[in-house]
Write a structure and sequence with these properties.
By secondary structure, the chain is mostly helical. Helix content is about 70%, strand content about 0%. Helix 2 crosses helix 4. This is Helix-turn-helix transcriptional regulator.
């Protein structure tokens, strides 16, 4: 989970910088504290769904855009490690769904 928090934080920072916003300005637009936003960007905290929605609105993105950080993982080994970590957290139903998705993508 720590790795996901770090990637998520980097993605928020990337989206913020793409808009030319400071942490203070984004925090103000999202109605959260700049200190909390800093901790999110550093991967120390993961926001609640309510805060995710506020950040998405402030950044003018969809929620799914926050999780498009595969480009941050530079090589196949790290991608496999990320997948391995996610698989360890998944329950049986999610694993079944993931197998179907992976089969569809690979084929």
């Amino acid at each position: 989970m720590k790795e996901i928090k770090g990637l998520f934080g980097k993605r928020i920072k990337e989206l913020r910088k793409n808009l030319g916003l400071s942490q203070e300005k984004l925090a103000e637009k999202a109605e959260i504290s700049s200190r909390y936003l800093s901790r999110v960007e550093m991967g120390q905290h993961f926001p609640s769904i309510d805060t995710l929605v506020k950040l998405a609105n402030a950044l003018n993105v969809e929620l799914k855009d926050f999780f498009e950080f595969a480009h941050e993982t530079p090589n196949a080994r790290e991608l496999k490690e990320t997948l391995d970590g996610l698989l360890k957290e998944a329950d049986e139903d999610k694993l079944r769904l993931l197998v179907k998705v992976v089969r569809a993508v690979v084929r």
